[in-house]
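Box S1 | Example of a co-folding query
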Amino acid sequence: MEIKFVENKNPKTMPAEDTLGFGKYFTDHMLMMDYTPDKGWHDLRIVPFENLSIHPACTALHYGSEIFEGLKAYRRADGEVQLFRPIENIRRMNNSAERLCLPEIPEDLALFALTEFVKCEKDKWTPHKKGTSLYLRPFMFGNDESLGVHAVKHATYVIIASPVGSYYKEGINPVKIMIESDDVRAVRGGTGYAKCGGNYAASNRAGKKAEDKGYSQVLWLDGVERKYIEEVGAMNVMFKIAGKIVTPKLTGSILPGITRKSCIEVLKKAGYVVEERLLSVDELGEALKNGTLEEAWGCGTAAVVSPIGELCYKDVKYTINGGKIGEVTQKLYDTLTGIQWGEIKDEFGWTVVVK
Ligand SMILES: *Cc1c(COP(=O)(O)O)cnc(C)c1O
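Box S1 (continued) | Returned holo structure for pyridoxal-5'-phosphate
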């Protein structure tokens, strides 16, 4: 497909790298593409970053037809910029699209669009400091100009980019987590495995409640029995129990994280036993009480890993690994960040340099 380019004649300046934070600043351009049933995907274009103009009846605003992805472009020491497993994001976006009746994007077209956009923005906007990156946010929304409830006809695909600071500017500090027993994030048969905005909207209340009580995030339980552990905040979760790694299996209500998948592959290669299975909150409670819960961490693109230092279960607070980051958590962090920033050899073939 042809790609049209409209240059931004009023380019911004890249902010100082230690002030970046997360998702505050955006680059000079954005990528767009439209879908209609008769034309398919068409009008692929890179245009100046600007507000979108949408009809007030736009489907996404009323019926929540919106999906997104999140990945990063990393600057290596030699100046090259690389992506981490971008094809996984593309495939997941298509799975999300299928669930929400949004149009899928052929993989080669999605990869072409992403790399053309990164080529355009990377030199100016990929920061250099340790731990920083250019965060890429592809998203798609139903864009019909009608209030009728039906599968979407017109969809719009956009990629925006934001230079972001290091997640761990002040070092990796383990977080406090509260087990949520009222609200649920998702149910089997619902949209839990799709990366859609609605899942986030439904999570906010519990997240806010946890924050008000002095916790960083909640540990989600399954929506049917409120018994099995699913995720932590907007991250997947892993535990080291009596030497083995245990992570909830993908039942349909859990988001299949690329960091989760990568952690499992790194751990297996390092010789750990990794069990993807149901893990009940009572089993976890037992492990907390008898001291066999050795480590716990969340994993996702933003943080890579986020160690859990304290867990509140049935109003009793338990400290994990003395409130410090554990050995396996640290090893995963070092291995994944090492591959992502090109500091160690990528034995898995996960990185894609964009030239
Ligand atoms: C995006 C996301 C994750 C993490 O996925 P990664 O591909 O590892 O970034 C985990 N849980 C939820 C709910 C998410 O939205």
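Residues 107-125 form the longest helix (19 residues). The domain at 175-340 is CATH 3.20.10.10 (D-amino Acid Aminotransferase; Chain A, domain 2).
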